[in-house]
């Protein structure tokens, strides 16, 4: 296996931490983009809001993986936080893409982490990468987010948009909030429970990102979700079964709207997203089933 120099933004987050660990374990050199003065040779300073990246730190990188962005479910969606969500993604992506394009020898690939929020609420209708964008705040954000990578694409860099679903992990993300609730025996369906959740295990997420780095034929949007989405009712049953806890509690939709505001519509919404491009390219999932994904994360 050939060793590479790979830059990562968002390396302190759930996915970035796991990706950096995986790459280093295989002998790759990982360069972390940080929003402060560097403290070591493996760090490069950047400021997404100012559009600044220390381009010299990217010299020699064969791949850049851009994962940085404010957490979608970290705060109530006030106008101020929606601006933070947009700026952290759009401005950050533009800064990285422009830095990549400015290099005399650019990387072979830019993998830009985006989200299945691009498709909006699809109900029970399955969609893959050929589907158009949906409606709503997250969908419009995802469109602008991906368009911000244009400088890298125009410079001839293979650019991949990793549209990630709900990552099953106890360390963070949406599932990180679910595990304690279900372990306490307080878990249950959300709303009607009929909405589809397009999940992916953390193991498969990292394996898929590395597959995108290595697979020259893949470019543009690629869905990072398990082969077949499941309903929230099925998620609830799997969590209860694997953790051996009751799941009698249910959270009605109106209560979620009171607690979460606008973000509740996305939690209660349905996204039945399938990973057509990954499967066509030969990617093999270690945890295609929701129970297997939960078991791997517990």
Secondary structure topology:
Elements (H helix, E strand, L loop, with lengths): L4 E5 L4 H12 L3 E6 L8 E5 L4 E2 L9 E4 L12 H24 L6 E7 L10 E2 L9 H11 L2 H5 L3 E7 L1 E3 L4 H11 L12 E2 L1 E3 H13 L5 E5 L5 E2 H12 L9 H8 L2 H6 L3 E2 L2 H5 L9 H8 L1
Parallel strand pairs: 1-2, 1-5, 2-3, 5-6, 6-8, 7-14, 8-12, 9-11
Antiparallel strand pairs: 3-4, 10-13
Helix pairs in contact: 1-6, 2-3, 7-11
Cα gyration radius (Å) = 19 Å
Q: Which regions are unreliable across 5 or more consecutive residues at pLDDT < 50?
A: none
Number of helices: 11
| Beta strand % | 15-25%
Structural domain tally = 1
For the record, the CATH architecture stands as 3-Layer(aba) Sandwich
Q: Which sheet architecture does the biggest sheet show? A: 8 strands, mixed
Coarse morphology: globular
Provide the CATH top-level class. Alpha Beta
Helix/strand-derived class?
alpha/beta
DSSP, total strands: 14
What is the fold-level CATH name, i.e. the topology? Rossmann fold
Largest sheet strand order: 4-3-2-1-5-6-8-12
What is the average per-residue confidence, as pLDDT, rounded to a whole number?
A: 92
Q: Give the CATH superfamily.
A: NAD(P)-binding Rossmann-like Domain
Distance between the termini: 31 Å
Helix content: 25-40%
Can you tell me about this structure?
The chain is of the alpha/beta class and 298 residues long. The chain has one domain (5-297): 3-Layer(aba) Sandwich (Rossmann fold), CATH 3.40.50.720. Helices cover 39% and strands 18% of the residues. The protein contains 11 helices and 14 strands. The chain has helices at 14-25, 79-102, 137-147, 150-154, 173-183, 202-214, 232-243, 253-260, 263-268, 276-280, 290-297; strands spanning 5-9, 29-34, 43-47, 52-53, 63-66, 109-115, 126-127, 158-164, 166-168, 196-197, 199-201, 220-224, 230-231, 272-273. The strands form 4 sheets. It has an 8-stranded mixed β-sheet, sandwiched between helices. It has a two-stranded parallel ribbon with strand order 7-14. Strand 5, helix 2 and strand 6 form a beta-alpha-beta unit. Helix 1 packs across helix 6 (202-214), helix 2 (79-102) packs parallel to helix 3 and helix 7 crosses helix 11 (290-297). The longest helix is centred in the N-terminal third of the chain and has 24 residues, at 79-102. The two termini are 31 Å apart. The mean pLDDT is 92.
């Amino acid at each position: 296996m050939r060793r590479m120099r790979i830059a990562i933004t968002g390396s302190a987050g759930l996915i970035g931490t796991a990706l950096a660990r995986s790459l280093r374990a295989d002998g790759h050199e990982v360069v972390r983009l940080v929003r402060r003065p560097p403290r070591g040779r493996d760090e490069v300073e950047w400021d997404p809001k100012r559009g600044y990246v220390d381009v010299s730190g990217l010299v020699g990188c064969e791949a850049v993986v851009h994962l940085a962005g404010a957490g979608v479910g970290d705060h109530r969606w006030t106008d101020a936080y929606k601006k933070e969500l947009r700026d952290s993604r759009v401005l950050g992506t533009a800064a990285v893409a422009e830095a990549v394009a400015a290099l005399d020898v650019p990387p072979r690939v830019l993998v830009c982490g985006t989200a299945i929020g691009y498709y909006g609420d699809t109900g029970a209708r399955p969609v893959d990468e050929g589907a158009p964008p949906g409606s709503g705040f997250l969908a419009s954000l995802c469109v602008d987010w991906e368009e911000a990578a244009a400088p890298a694409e125009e410079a001839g860099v293979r650019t991949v948009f990793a549209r990630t679903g709900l990552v099953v992990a106890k360390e963070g993300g949406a599932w990180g909030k679910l595990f304690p609730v279900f372990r306490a025996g307080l878990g249950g369906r959300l709303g009607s429970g009929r909405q589809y959740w397009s999940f992916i295990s953390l193991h498969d997420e990292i394996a898929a990102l590395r597959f995108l780095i290595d697979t020259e034929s893949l470019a543009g949007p690629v869905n990072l979700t398990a082969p077949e989405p499941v309903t929230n009712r099925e998620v609830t049953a799997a969590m209860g079964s694997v953790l051996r806890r009751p799941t009698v509690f249910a959270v009605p939709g109106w209560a979620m709207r009171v607690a979460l505001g606008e973000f509740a519509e996305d939690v209660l919404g349905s996204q039945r997203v399938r990973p057509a491009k990954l499967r066509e390219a030969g990617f093999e999932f270690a945890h295609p089933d929701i129970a297997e994904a939960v078991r791997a994360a517990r």
